[in-house]
Each structure stands twice: as C-alpha cells, then as structure tokens.
Amino acid sequence: MTGPAVLALCASPSTTSTTQRVLDDLVTPRLSRLGLRVTPLALRPLPADALVRGDAGHPALASAAGRLEHADGVVIGTPVHKASFTGLLKVFLDLLPRNALAGKVVLPLATAHDPRHGPLLMRGLEPVLASMRAARVAPLCCLTSGDLGGTDGSGTPALDEAVDGFARMLRDPAHTTGVSYRRQMSLRHR
C-alpha cells in the first residue's frame, strides 16, 4: 500500500540553493521513510519567458501544474527574499487555477538569514494559499544557516517536527497541527 503523494516544490532561483539542498537531503528522505511518495519540482529550470507571460499551456508549465494537481500535499520551499517568498514562486502560483490547492495540505518551508523574516514571509504567503483553497496549512518551518550547520545529513528538531506534523496531517484529517484557512479567516474577522 502506498502513502499519500507529496510534491516537494523548490522556488529558489539559485543554482547553489540551500532550500533545494534541504528539500533533497532532509525533507524528501524523511517523508519517504514515513511512507509518503515524494516527487520533486524545481521551478528554476522552468522557461522564464513562459512563466512571466503566464503561458499555462506551455508543455513544461502544464507538466508542472499536472504534478501539483496529482499531489495530496505540497511542501513549498522558498528562500526568503526581501522578507518575502521569491518572485519565482509568485509567478508560478499566479499561472495556476484559483483552486489549485483545493483539498491539499501545505507545508511552507523557508530558508532565511534571519528567523524573524519567517512571519513576514507568511504574511504574504497566507492569503495566496487561502485564495488557492489550500485545505490545511502546516505551521511554517523557517530554517537559518545556523540551523543547518551539521554535515551528518540529519535534520534539525524544528524541521523534523514540521515534516512529521505535515505527514500526520496528510494521513489523518482530524490532526490539529495545522489550521483550516476557512476557520482561520473566520476567526480573524470576528
């Protein structure tokens, strides 16, 4: 029996990406050990001209969107750029249908120089995920270079906890680590 399908999306524009390394070397192996099927998706190799034009019919972009459509959960990995997520992530999300995250569990994962940037990133990302109808969003895992100093291939306690919580959310819809966006938004507007 196979577990839920996860898309490990890397939104780093860098060729030497810490975010990509975290996804490939720490997140994907841990999710696989937990019985989840993980498919990587790096946005950097996608054709920039098609992304900027919003050409959702371009074969490479249609393939990427199809991988997202078939996933039960998505790990969105992004470096923090100017206290927000990357423009690469924004243009990719903009070309997807409004309900592209409907029924999906999302784990936001950020790599940053300063951990104080994580909440700033989420201020911009939360409304985007809500508008795309994400079913549940796990708490942000924000890692700094200091968190990733080890060379033994193990994650940090915060990363391990985030990944394990995400896996539980995928397997058990009643697990309460994350918050439904409909519920979260209703609480904010009271």
TrEMBL record:
<keyword id="KW-0285">Flavoprotein</keyword>
<protein>
    <submittedName>
        <fullName>NAD(P)H-dependent oxidoreductase</fullName>
    </submittedName>
</protein>
<dbReference type="InterPro" id="IPR005025">
    <property type="entry name" value="FMN_Rdtase-like_dom"/>
</dbReference>
<keyword id="KW-0288">FMN</keyword>
<keyword id="KW-0560">Oxidoreductase</keyword>
<dbReference type="Pfam" id="PF03358">
    <property type="entry name" value="FMN_red"/>
</dbReference>
<dbReference type="InterPro" id="IPR029039">
    <property type="entry name" value="Flavoprotein-like_sf"/>
</dbReference>
<dbReference type="InterPro" id="IPR051814">
    <property type="entry name" value="NAD(P)H-dep_FMN_reductase"/>
</dbReference>
<feature type="domain" description="NADPH-dependent FMN reductase-like">
    <location>
        <begin position="6"/>
        <end position="137"/>
    </location>
</feature>
